[in-house]
Task: structure prediction
Amino acid sequence: VQLQASGGGLVQAGGSLRLSCAASGRTFSNYDMGWFRQAPGKERDIVAAIYWNGLSTYYTDSAKGRFTISRDNAKNLVYLQMNSLKPEDTAVYYCAAVPRSRDLRLDSSAYDTWGQGTQVTVSS
Result:
């Protein structure tokens, strides 16, 4: 599967953005999906993940209550709706795919396919 992320940009603190990740190639529903982010000088960390059928999700503590991950298997899309953005959310955001399994994978090393990244900048 190939991934193409989009939707990043510059937003003021408290604003919202919706990231999209379009998948192509193989059967999208065979994959669990994750959104990761990497700030300058920091490691790439998970933000949210979603099960292949959308019935299970995971959020890092900083994302809970503000971000929502969702997917549309008919359109081969996964989304990350980000509300109440903070300057510390500034990072390059990546979508990633991993063959579906019983448990959601939270470690970036488990994901074998990555999108190109989209920059999110939140100004104070």
In short: DSSP finds no helices and eleven strands in the chain. The chain has a mean pLDDT of 96.
